[in-house]
Amino acid sequence: MIDTKAKILLFRFLVLLSGVVPALWLGWMWLSDSMGANPAETAVHFTGRTGLILLLVTIAFSPAFRLSGWVGIMIARRQMGLWAFFWLTAHMLTWMGWDQYWEWRWIWHDMWELEYIRYGLSGLLLLIPLALTSFRWAPEKMGWSAWHWLHRLIYVAAGLGVYHLWVLTRVDYLLPTAFAIVFLALVVFRVVDAILHRQ
Amino acid sequence: MPRYRYPSIPESEVTPKRLFEKRRRFLRQGVALGAASILPSGLLMPTKAEAWADEFKIQLKENMTRKDFAGDEGITDYGDATSYNNFYEFGTRKSDPEVYAHKLPTDPWSVRVEGEFNLTGDIAFEDILQRYSLEERIYRLRCVEAWSMVIPWIGFPLRELIKHHDPTSKAKYIEFEAIHDPEKLRGQQRSIIEWPYREALRMDEAMHPLTMIAVGMYGEKMPNQNGAPMRLVVPWKYGFKSIKSVTVIRALEQKPKTSWEEQNPEEYGFFANVNPNVDHPRWSQARERRIGEPGRRETLMFNGYAEEVAHLYEGMDLQRHH
């Protein structure tokens, strides 16, 4: 029998892996020269997808906790959220540095001119206060209620992220549809859960 | 990054080892054929596919001229040009065509020439190869998705074919249809666009000397994923105009609807001329990523062919007729 503490430790380790393994995978692709003909695009897509998946997984921790009642999920949620933030930040930096080659004139131009860049960037901006208030003492300092309200921004950020992917997709909507369905399911669960618990 | 490849000797000046060996094999086959003529027939005959591959090579070795229309910008790596493709007949990922294009049934291949031509009918691909003399042309290729390559195509001007089939006075447009075979082409099992893929040019565009039918690239016959056995190449238009694996060439009086126009007329206009000043509704066309290069290049008006083609569009509102 594994005791609860060990189980929690194991789960936190799994969350750690989900943040680190994509980096190893990307590093392996780079070293084995399998980034394809357009490595900048490959890197931008890879970081973006990883970030969005981890963001949706972070949101899914809440229903997972509601359904299972296991406390380990809530303990590891913060770490998962930070990994999502890490990958989405990497996504932005890969776009700016590798894809745009730090050409600020054009980065600036695209930020204002292109709809999908605006949605993506605003989603990431919304995550910054969440990352900043992810320290253990933050909820107590700012009050649990305020902290909870602030952290509901993750839904807005994820929605913007999914819409960002939707807008830039060309013709084949299989992937963005999958992301959208997962996102909407999570929103519906959250809303229904809130209504039921208020009664 | 191991990119930036500027070959010091033009690639076509060097006979690729593979080609050299095939040429040897062809000579041996010639000897074998000579022997076959006095032996029971059918014993040593090369297959039809081999025969036209060899015909192709004879033309390549003996008659070919090379013209560089890309201002010495450096030819894109062959591996990149054959592994990063938009050929939705095989799937929407860039890597799909390379993986699945071996299923493309290229032999036998014929093209139906129909509509407002005086000379119509089904033409075997071998006959097309024999009828027109091949040349090599290095063109920029600019995709509507803001990436680009430089490709050494092998082919002949489309105008030669049009002239041969003698269009009637009603012929104002040339329409093309690509292969339709959902059983072999997995991408056609999903109706993301209406199959078969259709493209069209105005007659003056089709007759322009830069417009070509390509049957090969990089000194070889056309790889399947790049549109074997024959495709259109219109270097001043976005890549989607250059329809692959053509099966029908049709002269028309009325302007036809193309596949992309039907799919989304706002985003993919009929003309689709490369134009850095007219953005795609969702992304910028001002710059492009040249595959194999870091950073981005500024996109040239008509993809750098303004001198040759700008007169075709004089007086037209290029914003509206994008």
UniProtKB/TrEMBL annotation, chain A:
Source organism, top-level taxon: Bacteria
Summary of the function given for this chain in its UniProt record: Part of the MsrPQ system that repairs oxidized periplasmic proteins containing methionine sulfoxide residues (Met-O), using respiratory chain electrons. Thus protects these proteins from oxidative-stress damage caused by reactive species of oxygen and chlorine generated by the host defense mechanisms. MsrPQ is essential for the maintenance of envelope integrity under bleach stress, rescuing a wide series of structurally unrelated periplasmic proteins from methionine oxidation.
Upper lineage: Bacteria, Pseudomonadati, Pseudomonadota, Gammaproteobacteria, Oceanospirillales
Cofactor(s) needed by this chain: heme b; FMN
Annotated membrane topology: Multi-pass membrane protein
Record domain Ferric oxidoreductase: where: 47-161
Transmembrane segments: 9-31, 51-73, 80-98, 118-137, 149-167, 173-192
Note describing how the cofactor binds: Binds 1 heme b (iron(II)-protoporphyrin IX) group per subunit. Binds 1 FMN per subunit.
Subunit structure comment from the entry: Heterodimer of a catalytic subunit (MsrP) and a heme-binding subunit (MsrQ).
Xref: InterPro entries: Fe3_Rdtase_TM_dom, MsrQ-like
Keywords from the named record: Cell membrane, Electron transport, Flavoprotein, FMN, Heme, Iron, Membrane, Metal-binding, Transmembrane, Transmembrane helix, Transport
Family of this protein: Belongs to the MsrQ family.
Subcellular location: Cell membrane; Membrane
Annotated source species: Vreelandella vilamensis
Protein name: Protein-methionine-sulfoxide reductase heme-binding subunit MsrQ
UniProtKB/TrEMBL annotation, chain B:
Function: Part of the MsrPQ system that repairs oxidized periplasmic proteins containing methionine sulfoxide residues (Met-O), using respiratory chain electrons. Thus protects these proteins from oxidative-stress damage caused by reactive species of oxygen and chlorine generated by the host defense mechanisms. MsrPQ is essential for the maintenance of envelope integrity under bleach stress, rescuing a wide series of structurally unrelated periplasmic proteins from methionine oxidation.
Protein name per the record: Protein-methionine-sulfoxide reductase catalytic subunit MsrP
Pfam families in alphabetical order: Oxidored_molyb
Source organism phylogeny: Bacteria, Pseudomonadati, Pseudomonadota, Gammaproteobacteria, Oceanospirillales
Reported modifications of this chain: Predicted to be exported by the Tat system. The position of the signal peptide cleavage has not been experimentally proven.
Residues that bind Mo-molybdopterin: 85, 88-89, 143, 226, 231, 242-244
The species this protein was found in: Vreelandella vilamensis
Domain of life: Bacteria
GO MF entries: oxidoreductase activity
Residue span, Oxidoreductase molybdopterin-binding domain: 106-260
The reaction(s) this protein catalyses: L-methionyl-[protein] + a quinone + H2O = L-methionyl-(S)-S-oxide-[protein] + a quinol; L-methionyl-[protein] + a quinone + H2O = L-methionyl-(R)-S-oxide-[protein] + a quinol
Family: Belongs to the MsrP family.
Cofactor: Mo-molybdopterin
Keyword annotations: Metal-binding, Molybdenum, Oxidoreductase, Signal
